[in-house]
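[Automated response] Your request has been received and processed.

Submitted sequence:
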Amino acid sequence: MPSDEFEVHPVAIRVLLVDDQPLLRTGFRMILEAEQDLVVVGEAGDGLQALDQVRALQPDVVLMDIRMPRMDGVEATRQITGPERNGPAKVLVLTTFDLDEYVVEALRAGASGFLLKDAPANELVQAIRVVAGGEAMLAPSITRRLLDKYAGHLPSGEESLPDTLGTLTEREVEVLKLVARGLSNAEIAADLFVSETTVKTHVGHVLTKLGLRDRVQAAVYAYESGLVRPGAQ
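Generated structure:
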């Protein structure tokens, strides 16, 4: 009986698993291959292998562990999503701890979001779909705790705001603050009493004007610039 292991649905999301623990990769593979719209195209045990696999397999999403031998997930993410990137791959960082000290660095490096390794299977699947669709996986509760943890390393609010913020309109600044709080486009639209399409337009303008790639980088920028302070509502 012929195997259909390598049959790929035309619209399937191609996923590369990167983790130094084979057992975890096996578990993730089982979860993902149970979904008709997801296909695992390869695995890697460290960052260097991940770079080779990304070039060879052209995945849509890379599930990236952070702490690995030879090259960690932060540097691998930086090279996969950086200016010299070769392909469409988005990176979804996996971490064992919700306050992993390297997560913020991974987001700065270009990750489209992060997820706990013990997250329910449905959350993992949904996160991959969100990231593959070009959105950022920005879980509000975890993001706030992460940024609160690093409050001592972020601006206090007493420093002057960067000049680049002056390029934004008042409404775009409002939208940026809400993005930093982890709100979705629909939630921002409800908060500002505008349409979701209008919010998408504002978000696009913010990213373009500030030279940012996605909502995750926008959120980190908002905190690092002092526009939003950890713990503030």
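Summary generated for your ticket: Residues 196-210 form the longest helix (15 residues). Strands lie at 13-18, 38-44, 61-65, 90-95, 114-116.
If you did not submit this request, please reply to this message.
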